[in-house]
Specification:
heterodimer, A: five-stranded mixed sheet, three-stranded mixed sheet, 42% helix
Chain lengths: 396, 539
């Protein structure tokens, strides 16, 4: 039996040498990704925010303290293992209790851990201070992509969805990058990166549509769960322009590994230029409020607006009769009135303490269209046509 | 306490002849030794199943890109690996040790409730089968992570219900096992075996059993709410109906954090038995060990939210849970110091149990230190849900709980089987496991620090080398355990090897060494008379 064990041991040794060498020949041609992981990175990134620098410092501090204690304690143990063994003829001592020693080695670690906690407290408080942000962006986790909406600050109103590069997702299915293929940003490349200005306090509000996700960017030192039905926030102030990468950090289903985060930090003028381009794109999608519409165009548009789920049709019904506290539109005096302004006023400001809510968030064109539609549908045959300009004139 | 025993004492000579044989011996088992064996066989089986799942995970992660499994199956593998190892391998393993050793250590004839003991074991079989078999259910095994976070669990297929049912059964089994252990320890100690003379293993299990009774119902509550959210229109955790997914995490971790101590306290107990035996010196600071274990158990209830620093807690919450968590390092450090002080100026030998015990102290402490680093909230923000966490909890659960069970196996196996294991093979198993373990899990610290999230089926190229190394280590670790089963466990069970004397270890103390090897079917049928230290039978 002993020979079996020896044979097994030598076989093992050979296999281990083979496996180790194969690991190193496997190494892919890949280089560090600035703002993302480095090849065989062994420590936290230094990062480009105060918080991430604090974290890196705290980690070094903890690591050194722990290693020093570890080495000290295990020097004692290994000395004892070396010196106090039976084979060296060491006789066992009889002591097995000492209240003084027990108190000493209870108090010492207590003081050390409290000191450690104190070192971290300032950073905890700083991390949670999301007030006075220059720019507020909502990050919405969705299976499996991120939605970004610029809520407040320069670029307000911009919104887009950010998805992993399709070719890289395919590449993953096909067994990853081929030998010799250099893909430094493998699984980190997205179609629309999040763009933010440098040296500005950015507050990220996280939420989710389906399950919990987590928004993480190691270079900024942030990780915040995105929880459906709830909003949470975190913040960063990037001190260097560049590209920074992160990945979803909370198991969110099948494609969990495939919803990366790419943040592009731009200088102030570059950021303003980017905002201008985005706003132009946004404007191109909008209707021209000075356009004069024909009646049939307006009716078709208005029918759509009326029947949008969650808008007019939900309360006033398809037949325009309403019900309960909801007043009918069909045959209503305010709708039939020759003064278009009355109905525009109701839509912009609401009525009955909000039983009829304000719809001022709709565009001028949509409001004009839906009023035109209600004035010319069911038994309402006023023939009146409301133009976007009429609505615009009554907006305060 | 002896009244119960005395009442039946006159019948004892008939017991031997009524013991069923063949398969009936095991199915109708009421003997604590048989049930202990059953528990350990079950644990070993689940360890192998969980291990195969782990190796499938490591095979997939050997290189970037998907080679063997799709991402959905990958999530099932990580989920089931976790559930099977925690609820199938580690917990039942320690219950097996408790069944075998506690009555022997306290001088009791058997466990207090022998038939409930049988029931709590046999409940585990359908539950284990349901867990392992969930891969073959429509839609595949649960893939929401072993933490079963809502609302992802609401998207799972029917196997999720099977998983919840299995957890319920395992929880019921654990509670019964705990009641049995508590009642046995509190009521059935031999005269003279006072609580403060009780062996450390019995002490740690007494405390563990209270933890189990306190938290298993909490888990049952959390998964029952998940079940009703899934099928009966409630919205405890479903945000679409006004529920709160974070509440699930609070409830889960209120169970989950004491749970990690449930998995490590009995390990502390085993190590506290082995170190004095091979240092030939009494355990240093017995009383402080008992107090430290109790402090850990109490503190374990007020630290749960350190698993949730990234959910967006208020600053006071983060500070409270950070400080409370760091406090746990104090009693844990006291235990490490006590073990080393026990070794200090002893007369040590290094048979396999001692090797595993020293290996445990050394490697577990590394896991303890990474725990301290993770407890620091600002660092945890970087490391939460990365491979650093994976490295940390494998250092405490594999190098901690599992190594302690190996140590306990080598220590008590002569008493169980009546034969000595082969020392050369035991040592090979130790060094092989220790090295392979570190090759597997040490690089994961680096991966986590570099920001690789856990539960990822594929990863950026920069993480490739350490993942490849970890995978190689994992396979070697797996083979080490196959070697353990085929070359150490099975020969010992078949009685192959040198005959074990009653006291195989020169300086091991305790009542288990007062009975012959192998321990007869019935022991301590009459309450033994003990000496003043309660370690010897004097009549």
């Amino acid at each position: 039996m002993k020979s079996v064990v020896n044979w097994l041991a030598s076989w093992l040794l050979c296999a281990m040498v083979w496996a180790t060498s194969s690991v190193f020949t496997l190494a892919h041609a890949v280089t560090d990704l600035p703002g993302g992981p480095a090849v065989n990175q062994v420590n936290l990134p230094q990062g480009v925010t105060r918080i991430s620098a604090d974290q890196a410092w705290l980690h070094w501090f903890m690591l050194i303290v722990c290693v020093v204690i570890f080495v000290a304690v295990f020097t004692v143990m290994f000395y004892s293992i070396w010196a106090h063994r039976k084979s060296k003829g060491h006789k066992a001592a009889l002591f097995h209790e000492s209240v003084t020693v027990e108190i000493a080695w209870t108090l010492t670690p207590f003081i050390i851990v409290v000191a450690m906690g104190l070192m971290a407290t300032k950073t905890v408080v700083a991390m949670k201070d999301t007030t006075n942000a220059d720019l507020t962006i909502k990050a919405t986790g969705m299976q499996w992509k991120w939605g970004y909406d610029y809520l407040k600050g320069e670029g307000e109103g911009i919104g887009f969805v950010s998805t992993l590069d399709l070719a890289q997702r395919e590449m993953s299915n096909n067994g990853g990058p081929k030998k010799g293929e250099v893909v430094n940003d493998y699984l980190l490349k997205v179609d629309n990166p999040l763009v933010v200005p440098v040296d500005k306090k950015i507050r990220i509000i996280t939420t989710a549509n389906d399950v919990i996700h987590a928004f993480m960017v190691p270079a900024f030192g942030i990780k915040q769960d995105a929880i459906p039905g709830f909003v949470r926030d975190t913040w960063f102030r990037a001190e260097k322009v560049g590209d920074y990468y992160g990945q979803c950090a909370e198991l969110c289903g099948k494609e969990h590994a495939y919803m990366p985060i790419h943040v592009k930090v731009l200088s102030a003028p570059d950021y303003s230029a980017w905002v201008a381009v985005e706003n132009k794109k946004l404007a191109a999608k909008l209707d021209d409020p000075t356009k004069v519409w024909a009646l049939d165009e307006m009716l078709a548009r208005g029918e759509k607006v009326y029947n949008n789920p969650g808008s007019c049709v939900s309360c006033h019904q398809a037949n325009g009769k309403g019900g309960g506290v909801v007043k009918p539109i069909d045959g209503a005096a305010v709708v039939l009135d020759a003064d278009k302004g009355k109905q525009i006023h109701v839509l912009l400001n609401g009525q009955n303490n909000g039983a009829m809510p304000s719809w001022k968030a709709l565009s001028d064109t949509d409001i004009a269209a839906v009023i035109t539609y209600t004035k010319n549908h069911w038994s309402n045959k006023t023939g009146q046509l409301v133009q976007p300009a009429d609505v615009l004139a009554l907006r305060k | 306490m002896s009244a119960v025993l005395g009442h039946h004492a006159h019948e004892h000579e008939h017991h031997d002849h009524h013991a069923p044989t063949g398969w009936r011996r095991w199915v109708f088992a009421t003997n604590h030794k048989d049930i202990g064996t059953l528990y350990m066989m079950f644990s070993l089986t689940m360890l192998m199943i969980g291990g195969v799942l782990a190796l499938l995970i490591r095979a997939e992660l050997f290189q970037p890109g998907l080679q063997f499994v799709n991402p959905e199956l990958f999530n099932s593998l990580t989920t089931m690996h976790g559930l099977i190892m925690v609820f199938g391998a580690i917990m039942p393993g320690f219950v097996g040790f408790a069944n075998w050793m506690i009555p022997l250590q306290i001088g009791a004839a058997d466990m207090a409730f022998a038939r409930m003991n049988n029931f709590s074991f046999w409940l585990m079989i359908p539950a284990g089968a349901m867990l392992a078999g969930s891969f073959f259910m429509p839609g595949g095994a649960p893939a929401a992570g072993w933490t079963l976070y809502a609302p992802l669990t609401l998207q799972m297929g029917p196997s999720m219900d099977a998983g919840i049912f299995a957890m319920h059964i395992l929880g019921a089994s654990s509670i019964m096992g705990s009641i049995n252990i508590i009642v046995t320890i509190l009521n059935m100690r031999a005269p003279g075996m006072t609580l403060m003379k009780m062996p450390m293993f019995a002490w740690t299990w007494l405390i563990t059993a209270y933890l189990l009774i306190a938290v298993m119902p909490v888990l049952a509550g959390a998964i029952t709410m998940t079940l009703t959210d899934r099928h009966f229109g409630t919205s405890f955790f479903n945000p679409a109906g006004g529920g709160d997914p974070v509440m699930y995490q609070h409830i889960f971790w209120f169970f989950g954090h004491p749970e990690v101590y449930i998995m490590i306290l009995p390990a502390f107990g085993i190590i506290s038995q082995i170190v004095p035996a091979f240092a030939r010196k009494k355990l240093f600071g017995y009383a402080s060990m008992v107090y430290a274990t109790s402090s850990i158990a109490i503190l374990s209830f007020i630290v749960w939210a350190h698993h949730m620093f990234t959910t967006g807690m208020p600053v006071t919450g983060q500070l409270f849970f950070m400080y409370a968590t760091m406090l746990i390092a104090v009693p844990t450090a006291v235990k490490i110091f006590n073990w080393i002080a026990t070794m200090w100026r002893g007369s040590m030998t290094f048979e396999t149990p001692m090797l595993f015990a020293v290996g445990f102290i050394f490697v577990f402490t590394m896991g303890g230190f990474t725990g301290l680093i993770l407890a620091m909230a600002p660092i945890d923000i970087q490391l939460q849900d990365t491979y650093y966490v994976v490295a940390h909890f494998h250092y405490v659960l594999v190098a901690g709980s599992l190594f302690a069970m190996f140590a306990g196996f080598y220590y008590w196996c002569p008493k169980w089987t009546g034969v000595m294991y082969n020392e050369t093979r035991g040592k090979l198993h130790f060094w092989w496991s220790l090295i392979a373990f570190n090759v597997t899990f040490f690089p994961m610290h680096f991966l986590g620090l570099a920001g690789m999230p856990r539960r990822y089926a594929d990863y950026p190229m920069q993480f490739a080398d350490f993942n490849a190394l970890a995978s190689v280590g994992a396979f070697f670790f797996g083979f080490a355990q196959v070697f353990f089963i085929f070359f150490i466990v099975i020969p010992a069970m078949r009685g192959k090897g040198e005959k074990a004397p009653q006291r195989p270890w020169e300086a091991a103390e305790g009542l288990e060494w007062e009975v012959p090897s192998p321990a007869p079917f019935h022991t301590f049928e009459h309450p033994p008379k003990l000496d003043a230290t309660a370690t010897r039978v004097i009549g």
